[in-house]
């Protein structure tokens, strides 16, 4: 595009609704601060590059606790504290090895053990491998066929789904439940096509579960490109047997002490009324947890920083929460809700950012039709920033346990979804893949919503 | 984000408006085809990787003409042809050299000659350098101060502007007109801060102009990071003189023959009624012209391919136009309009994609309030794909000359703007920076709009 010939007219700020003029000015100031003087990007750079991967129970996870606590103390928030909890500890161990065995030919393939998986035997597993697309196909094969085999779950994302989270939701049971279903029929291991929107060489890890009373077998994700190679091999070699070898050394250690990290700006009128904004501080171990969920925690800290910087004195207490252990236990979210309930805290709303730091599109509001209607009145305030898709939908994993207090309105921050699963849980979830302006626009949108909820309540 | 805990409910397709049910089904099919079986991404890969930079008059520009013609012929479009025109020919020549001269210290800095610039003397230019933010500051310095100096234009993008095209619009006169204004006061060269949203080491080229009767002086863009270094040096050295050296070997050759490339699907009911969809085939020379504008031309071809593949028989003739020479002359757009006028063609509408291949946000409609209202009735059809920002605004550079036929409705395809100027006109505008799904969603949105215009007209 060339200069000046095709410029879109500047978007003018301001709302046509009565009484929203002041709000539109404050929201404009929030955006100005985020875009011109934002800290989220440089804070994220520190979290990603100076600390790095932050799997629960790791040394890095503790470093991230210490650093975010200090960061919020240095910002001078009214109260900064830790909330102790126990987290599961899982370690990947030595880098995994895997290959397809086609006669005497070994084709090396990249895999990553799934979080929570047991190790393979120390010499690895070699076994014939069978491809299935879903649990129905697996069950149709039956125990006689499955016994002693490795099961290869290879159902890709449905690319037709506009929202990639829907595509993820349609594929992820292979990863989360595959080892259980395969073990029930006597399989010795599972290899799962990576949960990804793209075809490339990077395996995507993620949580898997076992079931009481069902044999535990090791599970690993294979890169989508190698999944296609393996599938092709299996199609071409109907007569002979394709075998698969993989070796992984992961292990689960005893639970360890860790923390949620919490910062607060005290409310001036109703300090006992709490509005939570958060993301999760832990990440998978393969990369820096930039979009998942460094962006969410740094945006949450930024919400409070902007309130303080603009001298917006909130009526209610605004709390930024860096939840621990979302990825493989949700212990932070559970602990936060447990303590809130135990202390009989009065929570108005909780907003979570855990869908990446991409361009904001809107917010989802969970099971609260009156609040959804109320928030929708603010669409004209969000329209100049194209973040006005305010629809019904889930809040977030970490804030989910707050459902034990039914009056709390749970809200999810919703950025554009198209790129998230390209990098999610893989070694590509790094700082370089975060765009500064997109991150800042998210922090501004979140701050604006928290401001409006603080002013006008939840319904 | 973890699995299944926070999935957004799948977006259901379909419109609640009467009579739009069939349309919503056809649009769903268009999206399915683009997302599941799309060709735009692999075609773009060929254009970027097998052909590459395509500056007007270059060997590569001719290759891109030949290849896109063959591509559309192979798709079996009803008519594929070339439209001959003359284009300016500008060559960068040897890689530029530049440094800041602070006493005896040379600090090398990356620059890129601006398109259309003359060369420096063969030994380069060394002169004191003066920083200004705008033409007012320049004029305030006056001829006595400016004479014999290099002028450094260093006004950055206004990061507060939500739409980065507005920020570009607010900065670009430094690049396009800076050499004229500086030369009027006796300057010997201009160095312009790159038109970019980010601070990094990559200079961004782009068009500059000279003015009849004003001395021609060479102009180059400096990377934003080096612009900051230079500015800092100038601030710190108020007493001594900072000099700047640059050398560039660019030249303008005689105009050469080139072509617009046009493919058509004939209308079944009103074949003389034409709907144009296009982008520009030429690019700057520093990179592959992926987002500017490989995405636009490949999306335009994809519109016709999808019509054909889904056997959608258009009422009017749908024409994909690969315009030549948008970047440094607009000769393709001018020729297209000239011939349309000359042949007394009946054009309904023209849609241009020249703002990058990012996630679609909507469309801008130029000076056609009735059409804007008419198109806005289709918002509910676009809402499931979050591409419903249908607002007043410019169409596009290449289709702009069609304004000589006032009945033609000019429409701009509007993707998200946040990342465009990170890479625009720099060596980073490469295929790797295009996301497959984002590109495909754009092609689907464009096809859907063309489908609706074909069915229901422009007002």
What report would you give on this structure?
Two copies of one chain form a homodimer. By secondary structure, chain A is α/β, with parallel strands linked by helices. Chain A folds into two domains: 21-90 and 254-456, 3-Layer(aba) Sandwich (Aminopeptidase), CATH 3.40.630; 93-249, Glucose Oxidase, domain 1 (3-Layer(bba) Sandwich), CATH 3.50.30.30. Chain A has 14 helices and 16 strands. In chain A, β11 (270-280), α9 and β12 form a beta-alpha-beta unit. The radius of gyration of chain A is 24 Å and the shape is elongated. The first copy, chain A, starts with 20 loop residues before the first helix and ends with a helix. The model of chain A is unreliable at 3-18 (pLDDT under 50). At the A-B interface, α1, α6, α7 and α14 of A face α1, α6, α7 and α14 of B.
Helix-strand layout with pairing:
The structure is a homodimer of 459-residue chains.
Chain A: H1 21-37, H2 40-51, H3 59-74, E1 79-91, E2 97-102, E3 105-108, E4 111-113, E5 125-132, H4 135-141, H5 143-146, E6 150-153, H6 164-171, H7 173-184, E7 189-193, E8 219-222, H8 224-236, E9 242-247, E10 251-265, E11 270-280, H9 290-309, E12 316-323, H10 331-342, E13 346-352, E14 360-366, H11 369-376, H12 379-382, E15 389-392, E16 409-415, H13 420-423, H14 436-456
Parallel strand pairs in A: 5-6, 6-7, 7-8, 11-12, 11-13, 13-16, 14-15
Antiparallel strand pairs in A: 1-10, 2-3, 2-9, 4-8, 5-9, 10-12, 14-16
């Amino acid at each position: 595009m060339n200069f000046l010939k095709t410029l879109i007219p500047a978007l003018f700020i301001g709302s046509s609704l009565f009484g929203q003029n002041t709000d539109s000015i404050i929201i404009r100031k929030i955006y100005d601060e985020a875009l011109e003087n934002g800290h989220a990007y440089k804070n994220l750079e520190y979290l990603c590059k100076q600390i790095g991967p932050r799997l629960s129970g790791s040394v890095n996870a503790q470093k991230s606790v210490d650093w975010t606590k200090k960061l919020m103390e240095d910002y001078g928030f009214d109260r900064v504290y830790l909330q102790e909890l126990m987290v599961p500890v899982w370690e990947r161990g030595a880098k995994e090895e895997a290959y397809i065995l086609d006669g005497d030919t070994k084709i090396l393939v990249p895999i990553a053990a799934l979080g929570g998986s047991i190790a393979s035997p120390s010499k690895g597993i070699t076994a014939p491998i069978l491809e299935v697309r879903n649990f129905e196909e697996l069950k149709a094969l039956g125990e006689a066929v499955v016994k002693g085999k490795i099961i290869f779950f290879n159902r890709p994302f449905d690319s037709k789904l506009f929202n990639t989270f829907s595509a993820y939701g349609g594929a992820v049971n292979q990863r989360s439940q595959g080892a259980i279903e395969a073990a029930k029929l006597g399989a010795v291991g599972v290899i799962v096509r990576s949960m990804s929107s793209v075809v490339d060489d990077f395996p995507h890890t993620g949580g898997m579960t076992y079931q009481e009373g069902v044999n535990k077998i090791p599970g690993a994700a294979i890169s989508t490109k190698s999944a296609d190679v393996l599938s092709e091999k299996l199609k071409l070699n109907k007569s002979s047997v394709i075998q698969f070898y993989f070796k992984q050394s992961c292990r689960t250690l005893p639970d360890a002490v860790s923390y949620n990290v919490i910062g607060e700006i005290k409310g001036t009128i109703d300090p006992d009324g709490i509005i939570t904004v958060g993301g999760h501080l832990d990440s998978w171990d393969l990369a820096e947890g930039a979009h998942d969920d460094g962006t969410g925690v740094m945006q949450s800290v930024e919400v409070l920083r902007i309130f303080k910087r603009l001298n917006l004195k909130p009526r209610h207490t605004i709390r930024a929460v860096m939840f621990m252990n979302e990825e493989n236990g949700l212990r932070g979210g559970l602990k936060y809700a447990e303590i809130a309930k135990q202390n009989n805290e009065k929570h108005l709303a909780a907003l979570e950012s855990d869908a990446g730091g991409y361009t904001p599109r809107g917010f989802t509001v969970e099971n609260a039709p009156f609040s959804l209607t109320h928030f929708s009145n603010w669409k004209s305030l969000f329209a100049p920033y194209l973040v006005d898709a305010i629809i019904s939908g889930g809040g977030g994993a970490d804030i989910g346990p707050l459902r034990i207090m039914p009056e709390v309105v749970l809200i999810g921050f919703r950025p554009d979804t198209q790129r998230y699963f390209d990098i999610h849980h893989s070694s590509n979830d790094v700082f370089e893949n975060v765009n500064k302006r997109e991150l800042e626009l998210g922090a501004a949108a979140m701050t604006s919503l928290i401001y409006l909820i603080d002013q006008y309540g939840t319904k």
